[in-house]
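testing teh design pipeline on a random one, pls ignore if ur not involved
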């Protein structure tokens, strides 16, 4: 699993400390979903395509996170990959890391490396936008990051 941590964003973290739990949770969900979409879209762009089945299985999975946090994983959804008959997680590992018979064709790690900065910027943009909207008395921007699609 690849993990992103928000560091050196004291302004955002201080502002989040002053927000009630439910509002903070929604804001963090929107921010993490937006950041994950950046990496998911890059992984889908980079994955080698034979039948397209593996590309379709790349998605965002929301995990239950500790209090006040939000966690999503960009990964492979379950189901059988048509061409191989393998579970997509197994097939995805063969593609990403290679086997003794097949060279590695990495797509998930490069997606993270290519888009890490953009994902962090998008997270900060969404969360800070919500904080500013709250400060102006407008409430959260429901659905502004497309989290309804998760």
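output:
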């Amino acid at each position: 699993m690849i993990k992103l941590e928000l560091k050196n964003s004291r302004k955002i973290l201080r502002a989040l400390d002053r927000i009630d739990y439910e509002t903070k949770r929604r804001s963090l969900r929107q921010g993490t979903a937006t950041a994950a979409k950046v990496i998911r879209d890059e992984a889908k762009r980079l994955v080698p395509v034979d039948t397209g089945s593996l590309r379709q299985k790349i998605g965002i999975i929301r995990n239950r996170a500790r209090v006040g946090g939000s966690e999503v994983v960009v990964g492979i959804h379950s189901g059988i990959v048509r061409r191989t008959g393998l579970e997509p997680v197994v097939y995805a590992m063969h593609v990403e890391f290679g086997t003794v018979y097949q060279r590695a064709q990495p797509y998930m790690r490069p997606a993270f490396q290519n888009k890490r900065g953009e994902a962090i910027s998008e997270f900060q943009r969404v969360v800070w936008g919500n904080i500013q909207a709250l400060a102006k008395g407008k409430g959260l921007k429901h659905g502004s990051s497309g989290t309804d699609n998760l």
